[in-house]
Amino acid sequence: MNKKSKVRSLLFGGVFTLLFFGLLYQVYSLQIIQSPALLQKAQDSWEKNQYIPAQRGFIYDRNGEVLAQDAEAYTVAVSPRTINDNDLVFEVMNALTPLLKMDGLVKQEKLHGIVTKQKEDGTFYGQREIRNEGWKIDVTTAEQIRTAINEKGLEGSVYLIPEVKRTYPANDLASHVLGYVRKDGEVRSGLEVYFEDLLNGTPGYRSYQSDSKSYEIPDSKVTFTPPENGESLKLTIDENIQLYVEQAIETAYEQFKPKSMTAIAVDPHTMEILGMANLPNYNPNEYWDFDSQNDFKNHAVSSQYEPGSTFKIVTLAAAVEEGLFNPEATYQSGSIQVPGGRLKDHNNGAGWGVISYLEGLKRSSNVAFVKLGYEQLGKDTLEQYMNDFGFGQPTGVELPGEVSGKISLKWDAEVATATYGQGITVTTIQQIAAMSAIANGGKLLKPQIVKEIIDTDTGEVIESFSPEVVRQVISEETAKEVGLYLEQVISDQSIGTGRLAYMDGYRAAGKTGTANVVINGKYANDIWLNSFIGFAPVEDPKIALIVVADQPDIGGNYKLGSSVVAPVFKEIMLNSLRYLGVATKSDEGFSQEEIMIETPNVVDLTVLVAENEFEKNGLSYEVLGNGSHVIEQFPAADSEMALGQSGYLLTESPENIPVPDLTNKSLRDVLQICLLLEIECEVNGSAYVVDQEVRYEGNERVVILELQTLEQQAKTKLEQTEESELEGDDVSASD
């Protein structure tokens, strides 16, 4: 063997030797060094984990009616591979388009793209979900799709994947209280957010071994961790009172078109919130359908504003408690000089001459409260009472986004204006807590929205909540005295600013409020926030209530502010007291004298002047027609009109006036409207109108009216809610 051959042999031998040792090291590495990691990787490949979601807790009203729950749902999926292999594209599209409401050109193109979706290599996908139109659809729609699949022979082309989604059986009822859960599981706003950890629960898992095709291996080891369902909440909210609140503010909202409206009804002895509502509103089942983000804001806790004259209850209570309020003492109304300027009464400083402090309260005189709060109580005492009543600090209500408001009394002028609610900011929840302290004997209570926490699986009560006293603000005697003074603000039908809230049969105490709204750092001259706060019955308060309308359209006339909120207060209070079975004065054996007021003559006057005439006499009215002048009125001029009865002002010939919406009107009112409009009415039922139908017999109009009592309306509403739950008729649409 020559030298060159030896070198070549040695070289090949060396290479093979190195390869051999490299192979040995690789075997050693795989079997010894990497063995644990590789074994774990192998186990991971054949072990599968199946996620088992926990049931989210229910939310009930105080009577056990379901307000929020998890419900059965389905996601629609298609198999582009099967559809295109069998040339079923248009059959599938024709079946799904109407059921998923994808009729428009854009949505049809979207659906076509899904059913013909291909991978990068040109092959069709095995399965694609139809988002968002087919995502977590309700049971009714799913059944319609299942029927279409069977009838058109589309088995294997269209699938229904079982899902769970959060539903709200009463739709937009109490939406700002409840909040909502998105289809993707993201929790948004309200109690759903505040109690997320409690409601959500803990998911479970099922682990098992599978083959290369992911099928479970028979007799394989299975590990099961059960889910822990979330706890449920029983609220203090009463679904019926919530309904009364929402219906009443909706009527005023449509009429006066404010920026927003808020109302809270509570039990003043416990501060349990019985109803809380805001407008604009939204439906948590269709949370994607809204006009602006403002629709989701719970103004009851998250908005602060200058209260205006409703804040005078604090100054009044402080003055009575300190022994400084003499209802018969007199002062000069109109205006008063304080350091920094002259402050005026709301009638542009004209005042009403020398009047008593009680009359000043009834007329809502600013000067009276400057003298009581600034001159007599003084800064330190007044500020202490403001703090004791809970202003400038959160109430602690179990709802997200609560703000504190602001009490700042640095200068003398700020002290003076704060006495009548200007220059400070408060929240609606703070104000109703303060009014409740007057109604319940002087105790400031923490607002309560959750009554019990319940075990979802067993129904047992885990924790219940009792009224929580923050502090005694005023004495029981003072609270009773203040309530009697505030009663006269409503009962005095001559000068009381709250006279439109008078209720026949119930004694109510209350206070109006009109505050100039700050625009671009300055008080606007013709834009107001109007409010009404009070409680009833005075002798044994069952309901405390506040109504706030932000910037209603009242034609620049601040005097009409009470006509926005006082009737809403009255309607909610009447319905709620009747629902709770609170006896009227006549039921209790008291002599009941109906208050009658002489009606002014407004025929031939302009509508605006006529409205003012009715308003200044404390009378309710409704304008029929679009004319500029009144051509007929009811009741006739100089006749007597019962307080609480509506007057009607006709501005056009009856035949030119379409039949108005009579829903929620009393039988007495609708019969009078029919008489004025010269139309025939056919009445079925009694109490209040719930439905109407207009028919024509030749040239004559006939109105068919269905009426129900308040109790019947509440029962119908609950039956509809239960029926909706059974049928699963909530609507699904795209995000």
What does this structure look like?
The structure is a single chain. With 735 residues, the chain is an alpha+beta fold. It contains 22 helices and 31 strands. Strands 2, 3, 4, 5, 10, 18 and 19 form a seven-stranded mixed beta sheet that branches. Strands 12-11-23-22-21 form a five-stranded antiparallel beta sheet, with helices on both faces. The chain has a three-stranded antiparallel beta sheet with strand order 1-8-9. A hairpin with a 2-residue loop joins strand 14 (335-338) and strand 15. Helix 10 (239-256) packs antiparallel against helix 19 (561-579). Mean pLDDT is 86; it is low at 588-594 and 725-735.
Tags for this model:
alpha+beta; globular; 34% helix; 7-stranded mixed beta sheet; 22 helices; 735 residues
Strand content: 15-25%
Helix content: 25-40%
Q: Major sheet, described briefly? A: 7 strands, mixed
Instruction: Report the C-alpha radius of gyration, rounded.
Output: 35 Å
Terminus-to-terminus distance? 85 Å
Overall pLDDT score? 86
**Which regions have little confidence, pLDDT < 50, spanning 5+ residues?**
588-594, 725-735
Strand element count: 31
Instruction: Please state the overall shape, judged from the principal axes of the Cα atoms.
Output: globular
> Could you say which structural class the secondary elements and strand pairing correspond to?
alpha+beta
Seen as an oligomer or otherwise, the chain set is: single chain
Q: Given the structure, what is the number of helices?
A: 22
